[in-house]
Amino acid sequence: MSNILIFPITYVLILFCSSALANQPRFSSNETTAVVASTAAASNADGICQSIVVPRGYPCEEHKVRTKDGFVLSLQRIPLGRAGGKRGSRVPVLLQHGLLMDGITWLLSPPDESLALVLADNGFDVWIVSSRGTKYSRGHAYLKPEDEAYWDWTWDELAAYDLPATFQYVHSQTGQKLHYVGHSLGTLIAMAAFSKGELVSMLRSAGLLSPVAYVGEITSPLGRNAAENFIAEVNIYNLLQLTLKWLGLHEFNPKGDAVTKFLKKICAQRGVDCTNLLNSFTGKNCCLKPSIVDVFLDHEPQPSSTKNMIHIAQMIRDGTIRMYDYNDAGQNRKRYGQPTPPAYNIENIPKNVPLFLSHGDADSLSDVNDVNHLLRTLKHHDQDKIVVQFVKGYAHADFVMGTNARQVVYEPLMAFFKRH
């Protein structure tokens, strides 16, 4: 079975899970400590700087930051563009990838089409982060990836620990407030943190590409088929057994044999067309070169935790933005002090935080109806602090790999940054 099928089908699997354990994250500016730390992750010689950035003619620095709960994250700094210039005077921008990706998301295209390099060439101090569990961020202060506890997290922890650690590190290294860009899940964790008043004191503005908050209206044929034909027909016990059988309880490895095996079952479902899985799941991307898929498969997809996939499945099933649901009132009460998970109140994002939201009408994951739901939630945001860009023809992958993304999305985004 072609490797091209691996990427989209891993997203389908988020719809099939519904129970696991983790500690409740706490949001506080004092809860994460950004420090340079040693790690067992890939060496600098094999890192993103030396493998991708430096060969293209850009200076690049490798950094490490440790979260409050012990994960060691990889960051790359591109302080200057190809033309050089003076270090230290540029405004920092932090780039956060989405689900099952890593920092290479922002470097997959040629230099004049990759957002990280476009920003560097236009005068920004660019920082790229890779989330916990991905290839370059597998270090931990006392756990190993083989340990069950290493994978005991969801995007709750990305919002509560990873994002604050990287914000604080970039802020301390540069002495400046920063712009933020997230794609897909990278938008969700930012909005979750901002809604609790976190990080905004270090933030200039935020660019949210293919924003994901509410996901109850996704139009992906694969996703909908999975939700309607599997989740609705199994109880919690059987669903857990399916999770254990197909995925393993802890690490969700999208390149493993289980995914290929599971794909065959999904493709056998009536009404599911697997001839073009990428488009049938993300929406019909208008502007990808065929060669970009080969580049993508050289680096992606990346691992996540099975528990994180379950959490996203809960959001799709329930149409809500809540913390992880243990499907047990007693467990939820133990973790949260109440029988149901607390909600993230997106409307509590400070109204004066500059926001740039860009979404497309062909996106099956950041669906137009879901984005409109998000925009209604933000209806009281200061109107001079929010820009909404609607891109006809764009689907989920176009925002990070589209051949014309620079002209369509990145240039308006940079203009927005320069106003803030």
From TrEMBL:
Domain Partial AB-hydrolase lipase residue range list: 51-109
Catalytic site positions: S184 (nucleophile), D363 (charge relay system), H396 (charge relay system)
SUPFAM superfamilies the UniProt entry points to: alpha/beta-Hydrolases
GO biological process entries: lipid catabolic process; lipid metabolic process
Keyword Signal: yes
Signal peptide: 1-22
Source taxon at top rank: Eukaryota
Pfam family, one: Abhydro_lipase
Keywords: Hydrolase, Lipid degradation, Lipid metabolism, Signal
GO molecular function annotation: lipase activity
Spans through the membrane: none
Assigned protein family: Belongs to the AB hydrolase superfamily. Lipase family.
Protein name (Swiss-Prot/TrEMBL): Lipase
Organism: Helianthus annuus
